[in-house]
Amino acid sequence: MNEILDLVIIGAGPAGMTAALYASRAMLNFAIIEKGFPGGQVINTYEVDNYLGIKMTTGMELTNMFLEHINELGVEVKTEDVEEITIDGDIKTIKTYSGTYQAKTVILATGASWRKLGVEGEARLAGRGVSYCATCDGAFYKGKDVMVVGGGDVAVEDAIYLSRMCKKVTIIHRRDEFRAVKVLQEKLFKVENIEVLWFTELEEILGDEVITGARVINNQTKEVKTIEVDGVFVAVGNIPNTGLLAGKVDTDSSGWIIADENCETSVPGIFAAGDLRVKSLRQIVTASADGAISVFAAEKYV
Ligand SMILES: Cc1cc2nc3c(=O)[nH]c(=O)nc-3n(C[C@H](O)[C@H](O)[C@H](O)COP(=O)(O)OP(=O)(O)OC[C@H]3O[C@@H](n4cnc5c(N)ncnc54)[C@H](O)[C@@H]3O)c2cc1C
Questions:
Q1: pTM of the model
Q2: Digit-coded pLDDT (tens) for 218-232
Q3: What is d(CA 53, CA 55) in angstroms, rounded to the nearest whole number?
Q4: Quick one: 135 and 283 in the same domain?
Q5: Which residue among 51, 65, 112, 159 is least crowded, i.e. fewest CB within 10 A of its CB?
Q6: pLDDT tens-digit map of 53-87
Q7: Domain that includes residue 58, residue range
Q8: 166 is an active site residue
């Protein structure tokens, strides 16, 4: 029989690591489990300049600061991939490939993954010109030419946002109309330095160390051309990493976990913190805030 912990935190991104910090301060008997290197999506960004008090750092440096902080409190992140969670009853069971944990509460902080296009050059240049987050990385393209790929609200919003700092924004969309809400579209069509290319798909992102351009194809005429850009912002949606609780807690139709302002899900004792839950802004600071709040709620539950 396993020891019954107060709390198991799954995922060591900003939400999970902040949860570990607060759980440690609250003297809870807990474990934090991460399937890869701690840090989450933050590791994928070269520059972070919007975390209060830290004017500019790299994702890796920030991750190391987070890790050092929790390690100093005696927290050790366990490197295991959680494969299954049983959440019926008062004691939850968490199975990894190498063991089983039992706990009174679980904070799921497994984050989200940006939907990728899968085109040539995308993986190689990720974080070196290929970005999935205009709010995070837009400022690095001041006065430069960029491309946005997508046709939904996020793509159109990103193009408008980027047009304020970039010289030119080319938005490409595979259809001849956007899915974005009309009000956003109207805004976009009024911006002079945004060019819209309809029926256009990205074929390849060009460059070795940095982006030099993007090869696109018109899916009607089959005309292929290269557009010189310094950055490519992919905005074709993201996916919550919520498979572990699929069908077990309430989610919206896209799988994002519905949690209240205390990060409580529809199942007592199960909390959702960070990018994986329904929210309007997915950033380090909002994920960290969730980490803190969820522990406060879990502590009360325990
Ligand atoms: C390229 C890029 C640049 C960004 N730049 C910025 C920026 O400049 N500023 C900013 O504020 N935000 C930025 N963001 C957004 C920010 O990174 C996220 O909002 C934040 O990381 C969310 O934290 P999280 O802890 O909720 O999830 P994540 O960071 O996604 O972490 C989740 C963790 O859970 C782990 N995990 C998943 N499944 C399992 C499992 N089954 N078992 C164990 N572990 C599991 C994952 O490996 C991961 O480490 C950026 C994102 C990207 C992709």
A1: 0.83
A2: 999 999 999 999 999
A3: 6
A4: no
A5: 65
A6: 999 998 899 999 999 999 999 999 999 999 999 99
A7: 4-114+238-301
A8: no
